[in-house]
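Quick log. Single chain, no ligands specified.
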Amino acid sequence: MDEIETGNNYGIELARLGLARDYSKRAYEIARRGRVSTPVLQDTQSLMETVEKGLVRAQRDNDLIYHKDVPASSSLPEIQETSLARATVPPGLLRPEEALKSKRPLFQNLIGWGAREAIKIYNHRKGDLIQTRIVDVSQELQDRADEQLRKLNLPASLEALERHVGLPPSLLHKAEEVRLENGPDTIEASLEDVEMLAGRDAVILDEALDILDNEASEDEASRKGHPINRPPSHEANIELTDKAARYRQILDQAKESDESVRQKWYEWEEHIRQLTEDEETLDRLVPSSTNPGSASKTPESRHTRKLAQNLRNRLENLDVLRRDRAELVRRAKAMADSDDVEGRILKAAAGFEKLAELHPAMFEDIMDEELAKYDRYLVEMDEQRKRVEEALMEIKSENEAFISSRKEDPAVKERELALQQLDAAYFKYKEIGRNLDEGHKFYNDLAGILIQFREVCKEWSHQRNQELHSLTRALQAMSMEDPPPQARSSKQPPLDLPPQPPSPRFPNNPPARKPPPGKSSLGKLPALTSDEWEFEEMELPPAPRDRVRK
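-> predicted structure:
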């Protein structure tokens, strides 16, 4: 195409374009009759149209400008080959020993599929054996021992008889938490806040009821001057008063819950305040059962300490078994990490015929022999299982005797009771805090509902006052007229209200008509059975729980 545009060999290029048109038409016909895919057919047609356009343009230019003769297609010279890329070999492939820095063959360590799969199978079986029959069994024995000790309350039950080591760490952490949170002052402040919020909600409800009472007083005073043909206030505001009674009931129930929380605080205040003391003061508050003088005063105490020593020895033996199991697991894992079966499998694979197809099953004997190295660890783990079961039975027996002796030891019972009271005081502190947080949220949520209720009462009272003003203007207009004597009467008929424009709360002005079930004649105020009242789903502060016996 470049030679056509410059005018060189224009006739030869026209001949090649004509030959290209013939080939493209033939290709299109073959594609169309052969029912090839639509994209291929479209590409062939596009190529044919492009060649046809180029040929028409070239013929026009030749006729007008170049006037070159067009040779026959059979006399056209062959198109010379052109090298588009030069094939080169990377130096690393020409001299691999320089790239690898080794004279070993490149694929010397290449393993066949059968041998490679056999190695994978062996490693999987080895890992599964170590995990399921050694590691998991050791953990199972430890979990069983921990569960048994937890049920027996060991070694916590021995703390009261140990040499003086201070208070239990768990109790010290709990006391520190209460001390850092300034627990008693925080609870008293929360009690005052909840009481203030409860009073605020009661004031809002009283304001709403005062609005209804004022409207009722005005309505009653207006009826003394002239009878009015509309429902009295105690009938018109029945839904509002019922709803107010429901709110009052909720506030009374919440007040009872608040009082139970306050009584709970009064009951546990002394013990909770003890938790705010420093460690030294708190240690003096808890009676000691390890005083040598008091421990040797009674035979019961001496017998209890002897049984406690026996129980401690059993617990130490159990701990020795735990360390032995940990060492057993460590040795088994170390052997598994250093265990490499690849060399033996490759040696066995080399012994088979060169052209034989290798399968993993052909190496089963080797894998079984290699896994047999771990049998001694399995035997040791079985012995560990038996020794742990025997140790747990002995601990259970010794613990029963120890508990029986402790029932008669007054020093231990006194210390345990003091620790239990302090521990229970911490949980009561957390429980009271949660109760007060719930009460705070409850009264804040209820305040929003009561404020909305007060606004509804205001709008309802305002509408009733507008009706009353309309009636007053109607009475004044009637009094200005001079009726004939015979039409006068000592008793005037009730005056109907003048027709009022539709109201968003009373669209059809039916003040005396009761609304159908599920509806409300108070506009924005839903019916009593409606789900729109949020307080219906609001939880009250939790009721007091059973007191913890001191």
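The two ends are 108 Å apart (CA to CA).
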